[in-house]
């Protein structure tokens, strides 16, 4: 983490594409907890150290051919990451310097400000339906809060990945800038947010996000059970397996 | 109904202007029920077979000079149509090839995608206040979900009917196309939605719409009672009668 | 109050900058109550008689160096003004002919239609965080209803004051017009709203605003207690005192 003026920078580096494996999720949560407790930091920029991808999202290998207990453990870790990020008392800025689908998009959506590199290959969205799976209600709530009910309904059903110009227009990101300027613009943006008195800003942020976060906190166990029973279905397992095999062939 | 690639087309044909009489509502609900249960259909286009009008909306003759029992029966049928359409597991596309006020607009708002013919005479909106009546809360909820709270507050109070360009801008429709292309664009649009795995799309749609549908389901009887007591008022009956007489004179 | 065609005009005149002192709040509430009960008025334009400022908002002197009982009395009066304005059965139009921060913006947000004079000095927004304080949940709800969740989250955290062009773009006002035309445009706008049958318009307005108003009504005492305990904190009192002293020096 950098420390220029109280700003930490978290550079995702889980080769090849920053997939959110259980191990990587756990690391992220621990790092976030440390930063929250370290009074020398008031802001955090999340970005990628892997070329061309911010994060490929959830790790299908954690959701395929494993035990129900493993699925439950994995899902709790995903919930935990979202709760930490969405309720962070730090100013959170996403410097999105690569493709940003599914779980990658979810992380970006928890930020206070989102900057996307202007590269047609870098699209952003919750594309779960394309894989035959369903974004849970708290992914949905986070998206509705960001782009509104109608745009979210359309984006979630169609599994839309928005390229930069469309992403800006629908409001899923706040700025689109040339790729080489993403980091410097992120620093300027976070400076604007850090100019606000911390206490007032944090209370305001908590007020805005409380209802949405509480909904998951209240239904956490139920949400784990839903995930485990959904992902354990034969039809879902088959379609995930097919998808993983196709991915392997692409690389091979 | 057509069957090209799993798409049914429902062409409203209740002369002269597709008014939602009790009989027509009942027919629509039965047709929808059949389509939902027919596995050969995955998508439905609703459009009009009457020139110049999609649907004139609720039938004032069912709401004027009849018994409370009739008003209750009529209102239950309106509720039933909305619940069927809004919660349909089919992909629903509205090919709006004519004027689309009040109850016509309500049907369009239940769709997954709305295409309006680019004709200045074809406006769309919930214009109930202009007749001295009030859209019920579930009409309001459907509109808020589509265009947001502020735009809905303004549109509902002023009884706004949006001509094509304004309709597109406020987001009450998704596309405005030349009149002769409405049907072909509807087919292209529905193909995009039908490319998504059904099960994931249906669960996502249900998740997006559940809270809104549940609100009516929970308060269904109360909503019928409200309607019956409101519509039975002398002042409302008088103003509906006046309106109906003016309509007759226009035609005569 | 003017009476041309049932329109009252309330011109704020509490020198120098229409600060919402306890006395001024009480006067406003009494005037509103009278207007609501006077059947000769169906619409109300709120505007300023002070040059360059619509209203500077809440009176920090009522919130600084006083007793808890005074803070409670003051806050109840702020709640009362908002409840009266937000639930008014009159058509309410804001002719914003000057700067419109914080509590001034709150009053404007309760209107059915907002017109801002096109002067770069006249910005509008809820800038509480800049003073180290937090807008209460009902200020927040009113803003979210007007500009949506994401824009409100950003505006409230950053304490944004929108100059005219930005105010129009984000939707916090409905029209921006040359300064000399604010009053005449307000009269035209209110005429459009008053053309709608009163009863239907009022029921529709109540339906749109009920949930938001009820939230404060239900938590009114709790909200007073929160305000009193927050504003009584040493750190808040110190920062308000500093701010007031700086204001005095500016003038001196």
UniProtKB/TrEMBL annotation, chains A, B, C:
Keyword field contains Transcription regulation: no
Annotated GO biological process: fatty acid beta-oxidation
Cellular compartments annotated: Mitochondrion matrix
InterPro entries given in the database record: ClpP/crotonase-like_dom_sf (IPR029045), Enoyl-CoA_hydra/iso (IPR001753)
Source lineage: Eukaryota, Metazoa, Chordata, Craniata, Vertebrata
Function: Key enzyme of fatty acid beta-oxidation. Able to isomerize both 3-cis (3Z) and 3-trans (3E) double bonds into the 2-trans (2E) form in a range of enoyl-CoA species, with a preference for (3Z)-enoyl-CoAs over (3E)-enoyl-CoAs. The catalytic efficiency of this enzyme is not affected by the fatty acyl chain length.
Quaternary structure (record): Homotrimer.
PANTHER family: ENOYL-COA DELTA ISOMERASE 1, MITOCHONDRIAL, ENOYL-COA HYDRATASE-RELATED
Pfam families referenced in this protein's UniProt entry, alphabetically: ECH_1
Enzyme Commission no: 5.3.3.8
Pathway linked to the protein: Lipid metabolism; fatty acid beta-oxidation
Top-level enzyme category: isomerase
Catalytic activity: a (3E)-enoyl-CoA = a 4-saturated (2E)-enoyl-CoA; (3Z)-dodecenoyl-CoA = (2E)-dodecenoyl-CoA; (3Z)-hexenoyl-CoA = (2E)-hexenoyl-CoA; (3Z)-decenoyl-CoA = (2E)-decenoyl-CoA
Similarity comment: Belongs to the enoyl-CoA hydratase/isomerase family.
UniProt KW Lipid metabolism keyword: yes
Single GO MF annotation: delta(3)-delta(2)-enoyl-CoA isomerase activity
GO cellular component, one term: mitochondrial matrix
Protein name (database record): Enoyl-CoA delta isomerase 1, mitochondrial
Keywords annotated in UniProt: Acetylation, Fatty acid metabolism, Isomerase, Lipid metabolism, Mitochondrion, Transit peptide
